[in-house]
Amino acid sequence: xxxxxxxxxxxxRLPSQNHLNRFGAPFHPFSLASGAENAIRKGGxxxxxxxGFYVSMIRNxxxxxxxxxxxxSLVACxxxxxxxxxxxxxxxxxxxxxxxxxxxxRWTEASLRFDxxxxxxxxxxxxxxxxxxxxxxxxxxxxxxxxxxxxxxxISLHPGHRDVAYAYYLVGICYYEQIRDVGRDQQLTQxxxxxxxxxVRRFPAxxxxxxxxxxxxxxxxxxxxxxxxxxxxxxxxxxxxxxINRFRLVISDFQTTSHVPEALHRLVESYLSLGLEDExxxxxAVLGYNYPGDRWYQDSYTLLQTRDLExxxxxxxxISRVWNPVSQVF
Length: 330
Fold this sequence. Notes:
Elements: H1 52-79, H2 91-103, H3 107-120, H4 125-140, H5 144-157, H6 164-176, H7 187-202, H8 207-236, H9 240-253, H10 260-274, H11 277-290, H12 295-305, H13 318-322
Helix pairs in contact: 2-3, 3-4, 4-5, 5-6, 6-7, 6-8, 7-8, 8-9, 9-10, 10-11, 10-12, 11-12
């Protein structure tokens, strides 16, 4: 079933190629009809960096590939229309023309043609299909805002559609691919985590949820990195209370990220600078228990030794309240 229509009634041609997004996630924009499954990444096929032969080969051809792709993109963009004249056309022909443009990577034309299907045949099964395909083509063209709007419109109009999980996932991916480095504002990272979390919450058993969980872990690590950068900046200016608040946030809110060992060590440094020895030795104890071979623990242990202190759990310390007892951490 497709929004009330029988899938077997769809006689239009579907693309012969399958599609994955650039991260290899399970994109299935053509799962709206039978027989279509996975396939190429956005921009090309999957490359394994562990293949030594290909590593050496790719270094010799990457420049020519980039320039060739750029030239082809410029030519394609120059030939794509900005708008379509209204010419009444059968729905199958409209849809197939849009698919032709999509397979030729004429993203702007493809999105216009998919929109035209909905404009001329708004109550057909093809209109629902085209709405989601329009979002996908905007995504392929890196037109993230338009892709998000189209996907959200699909969600609002067809919340019970069998492919609504893909629409939710596409929103999350659009935010995810716009994440900026930790030195800049992280609003898009927060939006990506929220949208991907919605996929996991609503469709926990779907293939999209599996990939969303992985990307949520990466966004959390990114947000933790932002807090660490701010904390280190405060610490360098001897604004230790502000620094401690940032490092504590990493430990309390992002415990599964790669930044926790450093955050614990930075707390040890800051506590010792403020003369809070009980907090310092308790924090070092947690660091040593969970990351005994980590360089950050070695640094903390050496720092304590210079003051004749040893890591040990201290009842009533902040870290003990967050992770209590030490033996139950992780």
